[in-house]
């Protein structure tokens, strides 16, 4: 079998989440995969040549059939296993499970004010920024690999280099940072559609912001994601009316219909 064009599969287990972000692209209508559907999805991905899986949602720690179970099933089938999470439920008092190779965590500012204005979580808990700082420290101490993702919005444009500098210090103080992903805000999903006016930026602003941070020669890779739905290496999978949907095919079809004026 020739090597696949895309080798990273994001499996969206369900749409539920224990927080709300102003730019969330997830749809409330997303179906919850059963355990059997998840197992079938893994087999399908293996047959298509994917070797790297990002278990996501919604929030994968809230999947009713158990995130660790899902990670172990993927690990047993030979995938490199990443978990895209808001971090709230990453255990901080236990040894981290060895069926997960890497966590993907969000960071959208280097102060509580910057980050929490788009990552909404009860302030009584200290807010989401405090949780992310705790989790990054914990992962550093545990010598665990992490990828950090930032959604570039009208708010983040001015603070992007601050986030880059923070990550540089994280690496210099012993953190294992696999990469920094920069996603351009897209006005889709339960949060993105509501926040388009407040958070939207042009592709020119996005490109220019990424160029600026790349000039700073940070000691880690920066991935640019102008539209997360159209990536050369990543594809997305979820269930709709029980059927497995492949994101690239689904969104290409939608784009075609939209261009032809059918939508
Ligand atoms: S973007 Fe925020 S609300 Fe949406 S799934 Fe991720 S953590 Fe949950």
Task: Summarize the entry for a quick read.
The chain is built from 8 helices and 11 strands.
What does this structure look like?
The chain has 263 residues and is an alpha/beta fold. It has one domain: TIM Barrel, CATH 3.20.20.70. The chain has eight helices and eleven strands. It has helices spanning 35-47, 67-76, 112-116, 127-141, 160-172, 189-199, 203-214, 247-259, and strands at residues 8-12, 20-21, 52-56, 80-84, 102-106, 119-120, 145-152, 176-184, 221-225, 234-240, 243-246. The strands form two sheets. A nine-stranded mixed β-sheet has the order 9-8-7-5-4-3-1-10-11. A two-stranded antiparallel ribbon has the order 2-6. The radius of gyration is 18 Å and the shape is globular. The termini are far apart. 35% of the residues are buried. Bound molecules: iron/sulfur cluster. Iron/sulfur cluster is lined by residues 17, 19-21, 24, 26, 57-59, 86.
Which features characterize this protein?
two-stranded antiparallel sheet; alpha/beta; binds iron/sulfur cluster; 8 helices; 11 strands; single chain; nine-stranded mixed sheet; globular; 35% helix; TIM Barrel; 263 residues
Task: Annotate the secondary structure layout.
Blueprint (H helix, E strand, L loop, with lengths): L7 E5 L7 E2 L13 H13 L4 E5 L10 H10 L3 E5 L17 E5 L5 H5 L2 E2 L6 H15 L3 E8 L7 H13 L3 E9 L4 H11 L3 H12 L6 E5 L8 E7 L2 E4 H13 L4
Parallel strand pairs: 1-3, 1-10, 3-4, 4-5, 5-7, 7-8, 8-9
Antiparallel strand pairs: 2-6, 10-11
The structure holds iron/sulfur cluster.
The site of iron/sulfur cluster (SF4) has 10 residues, from strand 2.
